[in-house]
């Protein structure tokens, strides 16, 4: 497929973006409120146990935890949006409405990733709004916060498309989420600084791209992080380019959707 | 320029048992304004051919175009010219009927916020008997209503070429009549219609030309009237409780108590009645009539020789 850029194509991409946002918004109790509640529960439990015992980057544990929880919610929900929408459409068969439309693979990509970013930002903002009441939080550099939010959500939205195209049943998406996305986010330093880990675990953490997304995002709040935000930016940027390239290639060839 | 052109189309699937040839060198054109029927038994390749036309599948060989636009290299223009009613009863459970139609139109570049398009959506809803369901969620609709929405979705961008893939499978008489009245009107207004159906009486009544597929090959292609004229022209229909004499079995079709026997001329009718009398059979409600498309279809699919109707590929 070639990327035909005409007003009709742009309208098609805009409509698909609108439809994808409307889709999750219609079930916002499940797609927005539930992840916000989950993040608050993490904060209450871990904050209650560790506040007063642990200080990281010179701030209290609850303050340290909040940016990590926000970013974790952004990443998980951005992934869930594109992956669940695609697998639902594939299994119910209504993907045919998109397949017969004159949409380029770029239009699919922009719309699905755009909607993932919107959902990630909405859930992240919700988590931030609710958890900010529990501990003082500063903003050292808003540009880093914005950059890592958008890049992280775009990366996970693209990865969600790849998973949605690859999976043939809900079970496979759940496996992708539970055995890849969840462990990588939990082991990325959401709940701790990787500097507190033994050398081997520290080295392994530095191979995890999720670590750089969360560390760079956190730098935007505290002005301090485990690695330089520029280095994190480079790693996340390279990872984003690689996943986007894979995603666009699979959409272009109609991987598992055009036979 | 043909509305739809299939040129030497082949499709081969790989399966654990080896290569499966779903389509083999299929070539024919459908002219603008035609009401064209594509018939064949299950597995003949009808849906594969339509999937290639719609971009849901890719041909292994050959070319397919819609109004001169290649479905691969110029897919956007080809798809904008096509309205496809899929065979499966699919719907998006998140949206109302009107939302689904606005979204589908938007994919094709129809601005959904313009009053003009909503007027067309209202006309579609009215013509398909959906006016009072416009704001109902898709999940709340019956199967027949969902089928009507599929038709409306296919037409929402006003395509010049309409493809109906078994649109009346499992739907009630009312919907069939509503649908055919509407589609016939669109055809009269200049839309090209390609129909696949298992209801052969519908194809006979609606289609000016018909192609028949068998095991991925075109085995007949002609005007409907020519196909009917070329078959055994007489059909004896009667009801009978006793077994059919063996000498009539080869040229008969039995459905429960109803027996249909083909005959080429009056002398053969006499011979058949004689065989029945000799065997002591007592046929009830005997009728002698013209053969219909179902008889032609069965004759062609059984591989019986049809000297009167050679395979014609030209229009």
- Proportion of β residues of chain B? 25-35%
Rg over C-alpha atoms of chain B, rounded to the nearest angstrom: 22 Å
Order of helices and strands of chain A: HHEEHHHHHHHH
Helix content of chain B: 25-40%
The succession of helices and strands of chain B, N to C, reads: EEEHEEHEHHHEHEHEEHEEEHEH
Q: Measured on Cα atoms, how large is the radius of gyration of chain A?
A: 19 Å
* Overall average pLDDT of chain A: 90
Count helical runs of chain B.
Answer: 10
Structural class of chain B: alpha/beta
Describe the global form of chain A: globular
User: For the record, what CATH class of the largest domain in chain B applies?
Assistant: Alpha Beta
What's the shape of chain B?
globular
Description:
The complex is a heterodimer of chains A (259) and B (315). In chain A, strand 1 (55-56) and strand 2 (59-60) form a beta hairpin. The longest helix of chain A is centred in the first third of the chain and has 32 residues, at 61-92. In chain A, helix 5 crosses helix 6 and helix 6 (142-166) packs antiparallel against helix 9. Chain A is built from ten helices and two strands. Chain A is 75% helix and 2% strand. The radius of gyration of chain A is 19 Å and the shape is globular. Chain A is an all-alpha fold. Residues 1-6 of chain A have low confidence and may be disordered. Chain A has one domain. In chain B, the strands form three sheets. A six-stranded mixed sheet of chain B has the order 6-7-8-3-9-10, sandwiched between helices. Chain B has helices at residues 46-54, 75-80, 97-107, 115-127, 143-155, 173-188, 200-206, 224-229, 266-278, 293-301, and strands at residues 4-15, 18-30, 35-39, 61-66, 69-70, 82-85, 161-165, 192-196, 209-214, 217-223, 234-239, 252-255, 258-263, 284-290. Chain B folds into two domains: 4-224, Rossmann fold; 232-290, Alpha-Beta Plaits. In chain B, helix 3 (97-107) runs parallel beside helix 5. Chain B is of the alpha/beta class. The interface between A and B is medium-sized, with 33 and 34 residues.
